[in-house]
Amino acid sequence: MNLPNYITLTRIFSVPLLIWILSSQRFASTDGSRELLASALFIAASITDGIDGYLARRRGQITTLGMLLDPLADKLLITAAFITLVQFNPSIVKAWIAVVIIGREFLVSGLRSIAASEGFTIEASDFGKVKMVAQIVAVVAAIVEHRWSYWPVGSYGLDIKLVAHMAIWFMVALSLGSAVDYFVGFWSKIDRTVMVRQRRRRFILRRRKRDVPAT
Predict the structure, then answer these.
(1) In the predicted model, is pLDDT for residue 213 greater than 90?
(2) Residues paired with 159 in a beta bridge
């Protein structure tokens, strides 16, 4: 167990803590402390996603365990956040939105598993990285909007409800777009793999025919 893996584990352990903060009445208050605490925890957990990967590459500590835990931690965090938000703030996060987000995560995981069994990998695209940032903004905005719909900033103000809705819709669009991007990348690689296999089989069959003695 190395440092990047320990950091990944902290992200996994933050999942039940996030659910507890958002679901338990113990943290309910009128001053918004629960919303701020949950937002800070989610942001900190999301930041560790970049830190553990950076350290693993920098230190040359990319391990099989880390390759298993890192995507698992990401999916647990996002899945837990959106399932909890359906109950915590249903006016912003509808049930179908959570289904789309979670379904996309399962789809990408399935494609990567099939790709690994076929001997190739599907790298994270820029589409997926932008989606991750959008998810952080959407989740935090949905949590904060539970307490503040409008946040005065100097002479102006920030319409948090509007930001939350825009971030959610933008995130859904990015999720669907990145899912299509992953699927197209997967299909092109799997198609090339099938073609290579067919060529090898034809080559082997031709060699066998030539090696068979004439009678």
Answers:
(1) no
(2) 150
Q: How far apart are CA 28 and CA 46, in angstroms?
A: 24
Of 113, 68, 82, 62, residue with least CA distance to 175: 82
Q: Give the number of other CB atoms < 10 A from CB of residue 145.
A: 23
Six-digit token pair at 73?
Answer: 């931690």
CB atoms within 10 A of CB 32: 14
Q: Tell me how far apart the alpha carbons of residues 19 and 191 are, in angstroms, rounded to a whole number.
A: 42
Q: Could you read off the pLDDT of 27-80 as tens digits, one per residue?
A: 777 788 899 999 999 999 998 888 888 888 888 878 877 778 888 888 899 999
Phi and psi dihedrals of 158, rounded to 5? -115, 120
- Alpha helices (runs of H) in the chain, residue ranges in sequence order: 3-23, 33-59, 64-88, 95-117, 126-145, 160-211
- 3-211 topology per CATH: Four Helix Bundle (Hemerythrin (Met), subunit A) (1.20.120)
* Domain ranges (residues) in the chain: 3-211
